[in-house]
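Researcher: Next entry in the queue.
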Amino acid sequence: MTKNEEMDHFCPSLNITDRVNTMLICFHGGMGEDLCGQILNCYVDSPVWFSNIGDLMLKLDEMCDWIATPLPSTEPRFLNNEMAEQYRNRTMEKNKIPVKAKIQLQDSKTLSSLAIRAKETLMVKIEYRQNASMQGRVIGKLTSKKYVWFRSSLELMRMIKEITIKTSVFNNSCPCHTMVEKLKSV
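Model: Structure for this entry, 186 residues:
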């Protein structure tokens, strides 16, 4: 199956309403052991860039807040009250539209055109957010197109970190890192 056919197969499944919590992770490259790329979801109006695996986990969690599913079982903790207040103020700016009222923002062709550019993709379905972590399943070419369950964000991070070891396609510069360097120089 060609990459275009694979994306044409995966992307329409992101548009089904019961899959609002399904994210397509597009890996574009990496620097050392850090992978970077985009997170695609048909209910988020534009791709969300991540610059490393830790950033990916935090942005997946934040995107679940944006789409209001799955809801977390606990409130996040912070080192002090000032940090908690900063977090609340920053996240209150994002609209939390109920899933049933949410209008699909992107069609499968748009998602497919973005995903084709990636060096590797994984589809992550976040089923639960319990104990201040995420639980769900992942599928892609690297999983032999079989679902693999993860019990925590840490476990998912370990799975994704192995991608850098298993594949050598990421040993070059990444668009994310290039963008960050340009912003630093301004």
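Model: Residues 135 and 155 are 9 Å apart (CA to CA).
Researcher: Noted, moving on.
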